[in-house]
């Protein structure tokens, strides 16, 4: 490992052992993963027994397109930033084929240009992003719990794409009045084993193309957001600017533009 850990001279790492020794308490530590090589950490090789303790993330980390693959964890929080009042910042990470049995997969971290794919399971409430924010990210998530599932809790999602395969007793896509989706898309399937509504907080201009067996309970919409009314319904008290459209209309940019959804048609 080289570098001073400053913004102008970050720690430069190319292996998990060095990364795990970096100070995670300071808000002034900068880390960059190296160029070159295969840029993959396969935890089947590095940590085949999996993680039972939280992985602490330094304050500023540019993963530089590296892939963390086959990450297995049973910790109550799998990845944790500096603190709830001073989030860590993570860029350009690929977290691939993770398998998590616990409560909080990603906690107190701001993510930008990151890709996530994997499975979250648990007997107690399971949360993908907790006090974490996602910008220009994509996620392909399978989530199951005998209790409650929340995709984003006290978190925001901007300019991002999320595919969901969810089964459980209750489900919240977003929970918390200040934690919403902005210019983002959500697709996939949700199956709830109760009569509970699926809670959604939307900022603006988001698309929900979901196959759901329970209604979407929506609040917080500014402007127009849309959902696929062929495969999901909304509750009667959801706002009028959460607009149901057909599957065909959802593919039609001119139609979406005509109802006020801010999509380019040129």
Mean pLDDT: 93
Q: Count of DSSP E strands?
A: 25
Q: What share of the residues lie within helices?
A: under 10%
The end-to-end distance, rounded to whole angstroms, is 49 Å
Q: Given the C-alpha coordinates, what overall shape results?
A: globular
- Poorly predicted runs are none
* Main sheet record: 15 strands, parallel
Q: Output the number of helix runs.
A: 4
Note the run of SSEs as H and E: EHEEHEEEEEEEEEEEEEEEEEEEEEEHH
Q: What structural class results from the helix and strand content?
A: mainly beta
Q: Estimate the strand proportion.
A: over 45%
Q: From the alpha-carbon coordinates, what is the Rg to the nearest angstrom?
A: 19 Å
General description of the model:
The chain is mostly beta strands. The chain has helices at residues 16-19, 43-46, 247-250, 253-258; strands at 11-13, 30-33, 40-42, 55-56, 60-62, 67-69, 72-73, 77-80, 88-91, 94-101, 104-107, 109-112, 115-122, 126-130, 133-135, 138-153, 156-158, 161-175, 181-182, 185-192, 198-204, 207-212, 216-219, 225-228, 242-245. The chain has a 15-stranded parallel β-sheet that branches. Strands 1-2-5-9-12-15-17-19-21-23 form a ten-stranded parallel β-sheet. α1 links the parallel β1 and β2. 41% of the residues are buried. The mean pLDDT is 93.
